[in-house]
């Protein structure tokens, strides 16, 4: 096909940038890999180290605390079914990956969202980046993650963080911007400092919106962790991937059902926590 202009060597430019990052910042990537790998191992050790019935009771109580007794009953039956089907250990591995990705998304995303809400210039720069992160096909994130961190759980978490972080940033920014101006003026009139105004007025009022962003980040992290099984991340995603490659419908349905139970559980609990704290 004829072109009016020569093709831009964008692929070559990207490879040069990636090679340069790997050459000059390799120590940083090693440090990040150690921290993330250690966090995943810690969550996994806690979740798999405890007897399954203890974990089920703890999550049931958490669901009851966050929502209604019907949610607690669903949590109890759902986790019991996962254990009965033989997917308990893999479910806990998946949960460890999701919790790590969600923790990083919150720790990084909330401060960035606050920064965007306080500075218009920062928002103008960050918003296109978030658009790029959310529209780029999920599988593309696996390529640089593999290059910098190899195969396994760490690149899976990194790809999940990139894919899942935008909702936390966007809704934190939106929640703070939606705080009524008269409340801000009243806090200024009482001589509140910047930190007092943020922690005592803006964040509490924006909490429901922020929790919605965190909820979406957790759901996206779960979906990406399943995809990350293609690069060696363990958990339920590996079972689904194996069932697809072997055309094992029964195993695929069981693993998929376990993922659905985990997704509903995490979704309802985070929603309940947001509503309860806001009340």
TrEMBL record:
Bilayer-spanning residue ranges: 42-64, 71-88, 94-117, 138-165, 218-237, 249-266
Subcellular location: Cell membrane; Membrane
KW Calcium (keyword) present: no
Alphabetical UniProt keywords: Cell membrane, Membrane, Transmembrane, Transmembrane helix, Transport
Top-level taxonomic group: Bacteria
Family membership noted in the UniProt record: Belongs to the binding-protein-dependent transport system permease family.
Name of protein: Proline/glycine betaine ABC transporter permease
Organism: Brevibacillus choshinensis
């Amino acid at each position: 096909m004829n072109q009016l202009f020569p093709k831009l060597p964008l692929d070559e430019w990207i490879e040069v940038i990636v090679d340069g990052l790997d050459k000059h910042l390799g120590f940083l990537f090693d440090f990040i890999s150690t921290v993330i790998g250690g966090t995943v191992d810690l969550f996994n050790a806690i979740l798999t180290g405890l007897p399954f019935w203890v974990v089920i009771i703890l999550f049931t109580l958490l669901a009851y605390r966050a929502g209604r007794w019907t949610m607690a009953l669903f949590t109890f039956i759902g986790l019991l079914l996962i254990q009965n089907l033989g997917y308990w250990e893999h479910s806990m591995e998946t949960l460890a990956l999701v919790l790590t990705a969600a923790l990083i998304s919150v720790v990084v995303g909330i401060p960035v969202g606050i920064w965007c809400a306080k500075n218009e210039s920062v928002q103008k720069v960050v918003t296109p980046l978030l658009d790029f992160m959310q529209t780029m096909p999920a599988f593309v994130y696996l390529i640089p993650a593999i290059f910098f961190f190899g195969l396994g759980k760490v690149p899976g978490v990194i790809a999940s963080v990139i894919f899942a972080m935008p909702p936390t940033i966007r809704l934190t920014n939106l929640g703070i911007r939606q705080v009524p101006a008269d409340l801000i003026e009243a806090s200024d009139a009482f001589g509140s400092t910047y930190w007092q105004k943020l922690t005592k007025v803006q964040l509490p009022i924006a909490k429901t919106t922020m929790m919605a962003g965190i909820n979406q980040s957790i759901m996206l992290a779960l979906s990406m962790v399943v995809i990350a099984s293609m690069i060696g991340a363990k958990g339920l995603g590996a079972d689904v991937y194996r069932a697809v490659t072997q055309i094992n419908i029964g195993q695929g349905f069981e693993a998929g059902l376990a993922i659905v139970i985990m997704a509903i559980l995490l979704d309802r609990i985070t929603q309940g926590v947001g509503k309860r704290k806001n009340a």
